[in-house]
UniProtKB/TrEMBL annotation, chain B:
Positions of the Periplasmic binding protein domain: 39-291
Residues spanning the signal sequence: 1-23
A GO-annotated cellular component: cell envelope
Lineage: Bacteria, Pseudomonadati, Spirochaetota, Spirochaetia, Spirochaetales
Organism of origin: Alkalispirochaeta sphaeroplastigenens
Name of this protein: D-ribose ABC transporter substrate-binding protein
GO molecular function: carbohydrate binding
InterPro entries reported in the protein's UniProt record: Peripla_BP_I, SBP_2_dom
Keywords: Signal
Subcellular location: Cell envelope
Highest taxon above the source species: Bacteria
Family: Belongs to the bacterial solute-binding protein 2 family.
Amino acid sequence: MKSSFKNHRQGHHFGLLCAVLFLAALLSLLSPQFLTTRNILNLLLQSSVNALLAAGMTLVIITGGIDLSVGSILGLTAVVTAGILQSPLPVPGAILGGLALGAGLGIANGLVVIKGKIPPFIATLGMMTLSRGLALSLSGGRPVTGLPREFLLLASSSVLGIPTPLWIVAAVYLAGTFLLARTNLGRYIYAVGNNMKASRYAGCPVPTTIITAYTLSGMLAALAGMVLVARLDSAQPVMGAGYELNAIAAVVVGGAALSGGTGNLGGTLLGAIMMAMITNAINILNISPFYAQILQGVVILAALFVHSAGKSPSRSCITRHYGPGRGQKFQGGEEV
Amino acid sequence: MKRTVLCILVTALMGGLVLPAAAAGRGEKEADSTAPVLGLSVSTLNNMFFVTLRDGAQEAARELGVQLLVVDSQDDPTREASNIQDLLQRGVSALLINPTDSDAIAPSVHRANQSGVPVFTIDRGAHGGTVVSHIASDNVAGGSLAAEYLLQKIGGTGEIAELQGIPGTSAARDRGAGFNSVVSGSAHVRLVAAQTANFNRTEGLDVFQNILQAQTNLKGVFAHNDEMILGAIQAAEAAGRARDMIFVGFDAVEDALTAVADGKLHATVAQKPAEMGRLGVITALNYLAGKPVESSIPVDLQLVTAENVDHF
């Protein structure tokens, strides 16, 4: 059974990887500027914010939930962090404060979902509106600019020639993959998403698991916001509007099912990179903005198609995941 | 028990939100009960430009001693329609509308017409209904103004880029048209990249970063608004190419004025949002007083550069 767990969690990204590589090959044929170190680093840098949001979103989606509030939490924590940064408090204090706020909003999401028994879609929709409203009222609708140089280093510095945000993304994805593949919490996250009722009977701490997933999502949204603020040298209350949809798209392109129970971070990262690649290509090839969105939609759908073609149906996925015996039991539950 | 506590909490929360608002409303009303009441519907207060527009209108209203009720559509035509209905319900004497969308606003203008409330549009017009006056700056002229400055600064020759606004919006169309009419008339200037960054600073950064990759000889860039040009400047600075380029924005928002003063941004086209709001209130009051008003009231545009930035 252990091997079947591993098999599932490492995922099957062959189709998606092929799609990304094919796209990259096509683009380097079309433009000599595409396959340059600088452009690849830029592209990864541009994907970093979405990648951070999508990492948290992956955890939430695996539990069978969804977090629509990430874009607004990004905006609110960005404004608050920038506000603290302008006070005499030290930079690390502001960063911790912002992360704590993000985590707090995530906990609130989790509590509303679990204790309030409100569907995640609605609960996080409420948080989305609330956070955006707070961001706007706290900032008075104006951007917060003039941030300390040390904070801007978060985006402008690089280590070993690789921009710091990419190291942050790498750290988050490594830690997240470890969490999902090697810890009890990771096991619970998949179990809850597969069948909440059954996992509760099996002794899995459902409330804690779900609250933790939303908390991590909120905290990562705050982290993404800081990277964005450091890149722009300004925090704007409208920052991150609509980002939740990009994050969801990256997770789904990465192979997770919105019904929960499947997915992993490797796929999500590929999904986020692919989405940044499309925008990058549109700009480099100077494709008319009118066609750009059509192209984006087509490429995302094509990637989903390529990806799902290489995958077995989700039902057998669950069976594979838990082994035949438990799979049978799980299928007796309310969801599957 | 739990439910009772929850009910009390929710009620308390709602009370906390509503009472101060009601108190504020009362405070305004006490100012003058005989003067006309004007309604102002703003497309979104998420954008500094419209915040300034509202401030200008409020200031004019305060000076002239009239009450101004402001509603925020949050860029949502549905919310806008119900907001305007509320304003009509409250019996405003005239409506100043800064529409979210020129087409979507038409039914609301019709409704106001039916109620006999005169309508004035600000910044964006209405494709339907009867509007007394349209108060707006000439975006086409603004685009040309920007292009002329940019071309002169790069010495009338070289490659340039354009960061466009949200495709299909009139601002993007008009500013682009004005800009392109000047650029296409110049034989030695080539527009090598024209991409949208949706009026957004983050997208301005990402899109211009990509354009910089493809275009190695860029000498200048014009963006349809300041947010995008500020993002583009960040991108060029990160690539170490900011010094080789001329940046021209549009709107003259606070951050852009700071950037002009710092020498990072070379020029921005100043619309005068506060002036628009002020002229809106004045025009409406003139009309209510029976004075003749023009059907189209152009608001000046002006190029802001390092030389005159102190006056803004």
